[in-house]
Amino acid sequence: MSHKSNSLKQLALQRFKKNFWGVFSFYFIVLVGLVSVFAYVFAPDNSQYANQMHLAIHSEKPGFKVTMLTIPSKINVEQSVFDKLFFGKKNTDTEIPISSYVVKNNELEYTEYAADGLKGAEKTIKLHVFPNGAVKDFIKEKTFLFGTDKYGRDLLSRVLVGARISFFIGFVAVLISLIIGIFMGSVAGYFGGKVDAVIMWIINVTWSIPTLLLVIAITLALGKGFWQVFIAVGLTMWVEVARVVRGQIISTKEMQYVTAARALGYTDLRIIVKHILPNIMAPVIVISAANFAGAILIESGLSFLGIGAQPPMASWGAMIKDHYNYIILGKPYLAIIPGLCIMSLVMAFMLIGNALRDALDVKN
Prior knowledge:
Helix content is 59%, strand content 10%. The chain is α+β, with helices and mostly antiparallel strands. The chain folds into two domains: 2-34 and 156-360, Orthogonal Bundle (MetI-like fold), CATH 1.10.3720; 64-150, no CATH class. A five-stranded antiparallel beta sheet has the order 4-3-2-1-5, with no helix packed on it. Helix 5 (155-191) packs parallel to helix 14. It is elongated. It starts with a helix and ends with a helix. Belongs to the binding-protein-dependent transport system permease family. Keywords: Cell membrane, Membrane, Transmembrane, Transmembrane helix, Transport. It is a multi-pass membrane protein. It holds the Pfam family OppC_N. The chain crosses the membrane at residues 20-43, 165-191, 198-220, 226-245, 280-298, 333-356.
């Protein structure tokens, strides 16, 4: 039985490897996962939430370059390497976009950057502010590959950091939906009768409520925040899993190997966990991939409505909300870039779901 199980797994893996879009989507999802985990390593702006604002250079086009003056702060912030790596740097320095500068009489004279051909304010600062007076180490040209948003923040950094919410909400929501859905579906399908009737009533009531409305209600009950959204989305996605598991168990529980397990005196828990669930996980895996995509879309919708991840936290949905009106103002990339990110990640999960469905189909 073990040898047969292993051979079926190898056969499914071989089928999956032959599916170009499935393999491509898998590697794309792995890449997005790595970027979301190590976002602050890849982001040009590694401050917390990539929230370094420069209002003088707001809404600039992709590839925009400017000279940036960094004035070091005297405030020392102790931060561990782990904290910097995964949660960003607590930046207390002041960054000022400038158009020109000159060093005179132990002072730095600089002109602040101003858009549309205007001349910025001229200011001076003592050189002793900079360690050892090395002012040139604090003046560097900065390139914004994706341009800047309406607050002058680096759009590329915001997109990279925003991937974390969209990616991890899929994992948390699917995990919650699997735990609740498999439990409810297993109990309903295996025991049947009144237990099945009660659970199906709960499923039907939950199913009849619009998903977005239910998520909004749960979010408002738990409060606005990062983890509240994760939990709210997960609590609305278990119904589909429960229905699939229930149907699979109803059609499986009368098979010979289950009857043999009962004859050997195994407990109901062991029969469900050890004998039935491993044989019905194929459709559950496929629906989980679809739930990943659904969770990303729901979170984006919540952020667009303003009840998802709260500012200054970066979120693709919130970025679209902040800039959708720029589509008619000649700067559509501010909303299109995060929109394409959502679309590509959702498409990848849908494609890998289709590939898994084909690979795990025993009829082929």
